[in-house]
Amino acid sequence: MSRVCELTGKKAMVGNNVSHAMNKTKRKFDANLVKKRFYIPEEDKWITLKVSTSAIKTINKKGIAAVIKDARAKGFLNK
């Protein structure tokens, strides 16, 4: 499974390691992802999602139902 947030679509970015002598080599910045279970009371079931930590903060603020509704509208979540 790829390292992509299922709610926000965040994925790895590409950048450079820069040494003291300003030599540049390619590197990858992975998204900070966590596999987490959420309970949805409207559907009375548990779902497991691979989400970024910033998405977890958004879920804590808005609620899981609102965040899933937005993700489905944007096409990130197909469940």
Describe this structure in words.
By secondary structure, the protein is α+β, with helices and mostly antiparallel strands. It has a single domain (13-74), classed as Ribosomal protein L28/L24 (Ribosomal Protein L24e, Chain: T), CATH 2.30.170.40. It is 27% helix and 35% strand. The chain has two helices and four strands. The protein has helices at 53-62, 64-74, and strands at residues 13-18, 24-29, 33-40, 45-52. Strands 1-2 form a two-stranded antiparallel sheet. It has a two-stranded antiparallel sheet with strand order 3-4. A hairpin with a 4-residue loop joins β3 (33-40) and β4 (45-52). α1 (53-62) crosses α2 (64-74).
Q: How many structural domains in the coordinates?
A: 1
What structural class is derived from the secondary structure elements? alpha+beta
Rg from alpha-carbon coordinates: 16 Å
Mean pLDDT: 93
The CATH homologous superfamily is termed: Ribosomal protein L28/L24
- Strands of the widest sheet, in order across it, are 1-2
CATH architecture descriptor name: Roll
How far apart, in Å, are the first and last alpha carbons?
16 Å
Determine and state the CATH class: Mainly Beta
Q: Estimate the strand proportion.
A: 35-45%
H/E series, N to C? Answer: EEEEHH
Detail the poorly predicted runs. none
- Total number of β-strand segments? 4
Keywords: Ribonucleoprotein, Ribosomal protein
Family: Belongs to the bacterial ribosomal protein bL28 family.
Protein name: Large ribosomal subunit protein bL28
Pfam families: Ribosomal_L28
